[in-house]
Amino acid sequence: EESWDGNATITSSGTYLVTMNYIGESSSEAYWIFPVLEEVSDFYLSVEGKYIAGNDDNTYGLLFRLNGTGRPGYLFRLYEKKQMYDIQFVGDDFVPLKEETLSPTITQGKFNKIAVIAKGSDFYFFINDKFVEHISDNQRPKGSVALRIAVDKGTEHIFEFDDFVLRTPPK
Prior knowledge:
Elements: E1 4-10, E2 16-22, E3 28-33, E4 43-53, E5 59-66, E6 73-79, E7 84-90, E8 94-102, E9 112-119, E10 122-127, E11 130-136, E12 144-152, E13 156-167
Antiparallel strand pairs: 1-2, 2-13, 3-12, 4-9, 4-13, 5-6, 5-12, 6-7, 7-8, 9-10, 10-11
């Protein structure tokens, strides 16, 4: 049985602070945060995230083109402490579209802006407004979006987020 102990609050400066402790059976688990939005195909999606406490393997990122509130879909995530990112197709398993890659554009202990532009089957990925990757994949033509954090068992983890943005072309 999976279990979480934590909370999410809005700070006085308007950021979203997530504090959690995963106490489940497996060694790690992911937590998805869904805004109430319709499914989209072409879009610009971004968030500013900061890892405050926990361990070096924790990640945060963006999920997009999800099937409602579940799989399949895509994941763009940062390993802030390791200054790495990767891109995955999330189905029954995680399928790497881009393996873990070092990126000096990732700043430790400060907000990192991560963004995705989706246009048809083309995805353009940015970290702190710098282009880092282009991938073409047509497995999911549209879907919902979410924020994702992944943590290891037994340690308090703290993440902070600001400026979650989703823009779509005019209809």
